[in-house]
Target: RAD50-interacting protein 1
Amino acid sequence: MAAVNVTKKEVTRDLDHCDIPYYVSEFVEREVGNDYDSLRKLGSLIDKLSENKKQLEEQVLTVSSEVPKRIQKALKNAEDSKKSLNRLLEEEALLSDSIDSHLLKAEPWMEELGVLISQVEEIERHLSYLKWISRIEELSDNIQQYLMTNNVPEAASTLAFMAELDIKLQESSCSHLLAFVRSTVKFWHKILKDKLSSDFEEVLTQLRWPFVGPPQSQAFGLAAPASAPDVYNNLETLFCQLLKLQTSDELLTKPKQLPEKYSLPPSPPIILPIQIMLNPLQKRFKYHFTGNKPTNVLSKPEWYLTQVLMWIGNHSKFLDDKIQPILDKAGSSVNAGLEFSRALVMLILEKLAADIPFLLYDDALFCHLVDEVLQFERELYSVHGYLSTFPSCMHILSEESCFQRWLTVEKKFALQKMDSMLSSEAAWISQYKDITDVDEMKVPDCAETFMTLLLVITDRYKNLPTASRKLQFLGLQKELVDDFRIRLTQVMKEESRASLGFRYCAILNAVNYIATVLADWADNVFFLQLQQAELEVCAESSTVSQLQLGQLASMESSVFDEMINLLERLKQDMLSRQVHHVFKEVTDAAKLYKKERWLSLPSQAEQAVMSLSSTACPMLLTLRDRLLQLEQQLCHSLFKVFWQMLAEKVDTFIYQEIIMANHFNEGGAAQLQFDMSRNLFPLFSHYCKRPENYFKHVYDGERFDPAARIQIATDCDVCSGAFSAARMSTAHG
Model:
């Protein structure tokens, strides 16, 4: 049996690839095995094997008879394919020879035909050239005919079509044709523009344009009111006809551009009718504000800035009521008021670009110019709806030399302002000291003035056109905050001997206020946008760690974090000094209380009424006075931190220096409990509902065994348990 089992385990060979004796033995083992009763199945097995043998023999005979036929068929197919291939090769050779012979015979014809084709193509080019000339001449004749019949609208439309053809021909290399088309467009454009401009100006004159007086004095022009409809109809007709000349005007007129250093945004040319309407105002501007005119004074930029604002305001109603409907009817997307403002602002930009180089090194004049320009921009955007995508004065101020000078002057005047505010007699006094609701932060005047200064600086640079320029101003603000912090630190050190004094507390309030405001600003959309811009700049720099980049990207930090952290550190240092000072006064006042004879005090039953220990009075009076003093001098948030820090130190002091350092009888424990619960804790009850929560060492007696208080008293054991037991005894008594 063991041998048989071993044999079974060793049967792992592939039966399809073993020798016959082995296969037979394996077959018998598999079919019969050790079950001798299965020998009865031998007959059926023999029949089954015989049937399998017969099928295999038939398959072998079939295969042996079919294989030669298949091979013979494959060979025949191969022979046929070979013959077909040879035949195709012979045909290909004949065809190739025939083609070569044909090409040889046709070569002279091809040369002659090529010459003819080249001639035809040249003729076609000439014909196309002549067609273009004919087309332009035809359009030119049409314009002439229209003008002869006084059909100006059709003439303008035809000229517009000719200008479009000019644009289509710009990619052509036919320079003479381009010159011919351009000269033709120029010729008719001048004639039409002169005629329409003259008529348009005449209509404007009838309307008493331009309106140099205030809006309420404008008559919108008509000496004879009965003729008003005709004049306005003429205005609309001429305006639309001039609009049709816009394409040709843009082709022929190169707009005046300021140098690239000003980085003005691209903007389309001013539409032709608005240009004509602006002509008298441009002449007035150049007359008054260029050359040696008494109105052209470098120290008075407000003169021309105010004049432009007045012109915009004086004409806005007419543009909205009369011109905008014409543009809408003509299908134009132009806003008449904005187009008018944009053209006048370009006069300002040219004037600034010319004047600023003469002002750069005069701080007073330059600062005055910047102030006036910023005021002009504010009114332009807020009152007249000017768009930030248009060229503005901020592009001129953003030019490198001008911008650096602006930063320098801004810093200089800010530092002067800081010197002034800190040296003022009212520097450390809150201007809202008499108004309780407003004076919750108890902000000294210097801190509020400084933050107002920062806010004004933000307002001055927030409309700069590029983020990089804004970030430079943000850097200036951070520098000013750090400088102000250093100044506060210097004053604080001078006042450190009187850390509870009014000025020291005012400095602390100032530090807290600045840190609080900066934290609020960090959530402002404007500064969040600057943070994103700073992130993009830092990502391109290798000086910033991946951790810092991640913090910036996740908005975990802010642009003012570094400044806020420094201010918070200064605040904590100053608070710690105050707490230490008051705590020292309290411990000095508690010397007699520490030496109280706790072991020999009468019990509660022996006293008619419990009263405060006389030795505790100096300590508690000192605490009361200092808490009241600092509550009046510190803002609420600072005072809250102060009294909590002080309570923690007093708690530890009483626990370690009085409770743990003395021995108590029952009367002493009750007296200490009375002093604490009826006198110390109420001092802090003005600032929280459960002051005992801030004196956990003193109040928490659950760690001691109340039942041991008698033993503690009699054995003069450590009094921590005695005090807790006495408190619990009083509570249950």
User: Anything to note?
Assistant: Confidence is low (pLDDT under 50) at residues 1-12, 701-733. The two ends are 96 Å apart (CA to CA). Residues 590-732 form one domain. The first helix runs from residue 2 to 10.
